[in-house]
Amino acid sequence: MVIITISEKKVTKYCTYCAEEIDAKAEVCPKCGVRQPKQDESK
Ligand SMILES: [Zn+2]
Q1: pTM over 0.70
Q2: Higher pLDDT, residue 5 or 30
Q3: I need a labelling partner for 18 at 20 to 30 A (CA). Which of 12, 27, 36, 43 fits?
Q4: Residue 39 C-alpha to ligand 1 middle, in angstroms?
Q5: Residues 14, 21 contacting (CB under 8 angstroms)
Q6: Where residue 31 falls among pLDDT bands split at 50, 70, 90?
Q7: Is-contact 27 11, C-beta < 8 A?
């Protein structure tokens, strides 16, 4: 019996330039290298 627990939640967003799915915390798209705007949800 194999039990797989995935505890880490992966949050992604889309690059504003090439629309590649990237990490939500990524400041720069790993594909095209375009800097992503910060998502400030502290309001
Ligand atoms: Zn990109």
Answers
A1: no
A2: 30
A3: 43
A4: 16
A5: yes
A6: very high
A7: no
**Cβ(16)–Cβ(36) under 8 Å?**
yes
Q: How far is the CA of 14 from the centre of ligand 1 (A)?
A: 8
**Ligand 1: centre distance to CA 36 (Å):** 8
**How many angstroms separate the alpha carbon of residue 43 from the centre of ligand 1?**
27
Alpha carbon of 22 to ligand 1 centroid (Å): 8
In contact, 36 and 17? CB cutoff 8 Å: no
Both tokens of 15, joined, read 């690059």
Look at residue 42 and tell me whether its pLDDT is greater than 80.
Answer: no
- The token pair at 6 is 């995935």
